[in-house]
Amino acid sequence: MSRNTESTPLVTIGIPMYNVEKHIEKSLLSVLSQTYQNVEILVVDDCSTDSSANVVRRLQNSHPLGKRINIITQTTNQGVSEARNYIIKNAKGKYIFFIDSDDLIEPITIEKMLKEAETHKTDVVIASSKTRNYHDGKESRFTIFNKYTLLKGKDSLAEFFCQSLDYHIPGTCWNILYSVDFLRRNDLLFLGTRNEDAVFLFDYYFHVESAVLLPDITYTYLLRPGSIMGYQERNTIPTKEIRASIESMGYLTERCKNVKGKPYYDMHCTKVLSYKKDILYAIIKHRDLLDGIISNQEIRPLLSPAASFKEIIRFKNYRPQNILFYILWKFPSSISIGIFSFIMKIVKSRRG
Fold first, then answer.
1. What pLDDT, on the 0 to 100 scale, is given for residue 134?
2. SS3 for 105-132, per residue?
3. How far apart, in whole angstroms, are the C-alpha atoms of residue 30 and residue 103?
4. For a surface tag, which of 166, 228, 270, 303 has the fewest beta carbons within 10 Å of its beta carbon?
5. Do residues 241 and 194 lie in contact, with contact meaning Cβ atoms separated by under 8 Å?
6. Greatest C-alpha distance within the chain
7. Where does the chain show beta strands of DSSP type E?
8. Ranges of the chain whose pLDDT falls below 50
């Protein structure tokens, strides 16, 4: 495949951006340094209040490939989901690759993933990634596929994903080369303002009919305070983020019906339940960091079952766990949250 000619497929590299003036230049330079250069770089500025947009415009004017950068400024701050949705709706490329505005990709990333996508006509190509700590520069594995894997056929990726409760494919939207036709044909968009990557994962994976998983590390995720993912090293957690997480988990629970009748329905529901359980435990554990009060009644929906009781008793996998949470959910919030907290302390102590 020719790397740079206009006859080769256009790839849209989408970058949501908000207040990352210290990081966006390095991130963009890693994109501009790709060995495959038939790309459009679509930066969606979500009303940054710092100089992020100025940094991008400077690179537009000074870098030899700066003309490939398009910057769009939202009229109001709408969150990362709407920024990514704009990219999906407006991408000119045959493929989309998302990168967060403080992360880095390897020079060969797009070329390597595009070769697989074109060879095997895939819906998605997913590669391995690592993390880098913002303070000390230490790196560690993040998502690693142990071997090259080609998945073909309806539900092939879903069956791979649902082997067990382990996350066999990442709960992130970046470092994946998506077919634009695949995304648009299945009306796949991002929802909510928290945990949007996980909601997107649980929405798209069962639609995939062809995928390649690569052991090659092509992406570096920067661990820093205030980054898009997680609550790393924060002294205060806004209650609005907790409420947004609860809302997004409501999406996940409701959308379990999309895979009803599939042979992996029980595993899908249990994965959703496990995700909700981890969030609920994190809320309870870090309640003293909240900038306001979150009642037990407010967090109780995180115990809600992803399937009906009649469906749960027919589960082949993880039936007791689902029944337990179903019963907990039926109790008043003060009792159910108290019992949940007690159970989790026992589980954590045995593991630790």
1. 78
2. ECCCHHHHHHHHHHHHCCCEEEEEEEEE
3. 9
4. 166
5. yes
6. 64
7. 11-17, 39-45, 69-73, 95-98, 104-105, 124-133, 139-143, 149-152, 176-179, 210-223
8. 1-2, 227-232
HSE at residue 137, side-chain half, CA atoms within 13 A, is 0
**Residue boundaries of the structural domains of the chain:** 11-223, 239-351
* CA atoms in the 13 A half-sphere facing the CB of 287: 12
Instruction: Decide yes or no: CATH 1.10.10.10 for domain 11-223.
Output: no
Instruction: Give the residue carrying structure tokens 């790196």.
Output: 139
* 95-116: pLDDT as tens digits: 999 999 999 999 999 999 999 9
Name residue 272's amino acid.
V
Q: Is 203 left (phi over 0), alpha (psi -120 to 50) or beta?
A: alpha
Q: What integer pLDDT is reported at residue 230 of this predicted model?
A: 44
Q: What residues have CB less than 8 Å from 20, skipping those under 6 apart?
A: 27, 48, 50, 52, 101, 102
Residue type, position 172, single letter: T
